[in-house]
């Protein structure tokens, strides 16, 4: 997606979009390439994969907490 | 790692020593009592996490000051067997789908979790959920300024 296309979907100015895209690029969430005079951005799959990997670990923790609570509730019913 | 592997659905299975009803209700109606506060928007100011218990309902957090933060929309609601939500707001929780199934196994219950939709590696990668995900990060960044 080009900067102008993104700006058209957002309630902020085009320079602000460019500035924020730089932040996203530094964070590894998007990648940038030049196409003529335009800069075109795409989602960095490695960045999305990192979030997925984070959730993969998160669910192990959360399901452990869930299991403890479900079993506590079951015992207190008895 | 290939793109397909990197973005495959997350699948987890656990068995809990609780009835299907207790398991389902603990996961949904009583989620506030166990959900890790480190993975909430308001952290130590979470008053409650709420599942609107119907298709089209919301899943959201409410802070002690009455603010709300949306987590998800309910796509399927079949108590006490399964539910599906579409997570759409918090930047670290992109527009993904989470399905939890509860299956009785004697006096116990098996819970199958699938967290999917990390991206569509075949075609829509640059215009589909990937961009929704990034844009949610983007709009979130205004709030910290």
What does this structure look like?
The complex is a heterodimer of chains A (78) and B (145). With 78 residues, chain A is of the alpha+beta class. Chain A folds into two domains: 1-43, Winged helix-like DNA-binding domain superfamily/Winged helix DNA-binding domain (Arc Repressor Mutant, subunit A, Orthogonal Bundle); 45-78. Helix content of chain A is 67%, strand content 15%. Chain A has helices spanning 3-8, 14-26, 45-77; strands at residues 30-35, 38-43. Chain A has a two-stranded antiparallel sheet. In chain A, strand 1 and strand 2 (38-43) form a beta hairpin. The longest helix of chain A has 33 residues, at 45-77. Chain A is elongated and about 70 Å long. The model of chain A has no long low-confidence stretch (mean pLDDT 82). Chain B is α+β, with helices and mostly antiparallel strands and 145 residues long. Chain B has a single domain, classed as Alpha-D-Glucose-1,6-Bisphosphate, Chain A, domain 4. Chain B is built from three helices and seven strands; from the N terminus they run αβαββββββα. Chain B has helices at 3-6, 20-27, 129-143, and strands at residues 10-16, 46-51, 58-63, 68-78, 82-87, 96-105, 108-116. Chain B has a seven-stranded antiparallel beta sheet with strand order 1-7-6-5-4-3-2, with helices on one face. In chain B, a hairpin with a 3-residue loop joins strand 4 (68-78) and strand 5 (82-87).
């Amino acid at each position: 997606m080009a900067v102008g296309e993104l700006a058209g979907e957002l309630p902020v100015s085009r320079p602000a979009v460019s500035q924020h895209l730089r932040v996203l690029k530094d964070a590894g969430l998007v990648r940038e390439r030049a196409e003529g005079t335009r800069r075109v951005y795409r989602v960095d799959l490695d960045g999305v994969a990192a979030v997925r990997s984070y959730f993969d670990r998160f669910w192990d923790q959360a399901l452990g907490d869930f299991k403890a609570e479900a079993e506590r509730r079951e015992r207190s019913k008895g | 790692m290939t793109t397909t592997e990197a973005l495959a659905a997350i699948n987890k299975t656990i068995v809990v020593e609780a009835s299907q009803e207790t398991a389902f209700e603990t996961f949904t109606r009583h989620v506030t009592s166990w959900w890790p506060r480190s993975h909430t928007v308001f952290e130590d100011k979470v008053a409650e996490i709420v599942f609107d218990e119907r298709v089209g309902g919301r899943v959201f957090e409410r802070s002690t000051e009455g603010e709300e933060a949306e987590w998800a929309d309910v796509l399927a609601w079949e108590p006490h067997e399964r539910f599906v939500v579409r997570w759409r707001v918090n930047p670290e929780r992109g527009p993904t789908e989470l399905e939890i199934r509860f299956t009785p196994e004697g006096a116990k219950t098996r819970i199958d979790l699938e967290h999917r939709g990390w991206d569509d590696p075949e075609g829509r990668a640059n215009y589909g959920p990937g961009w929704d995900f990034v844009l949610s990060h983007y709009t979130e960044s205004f709030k910290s300024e």
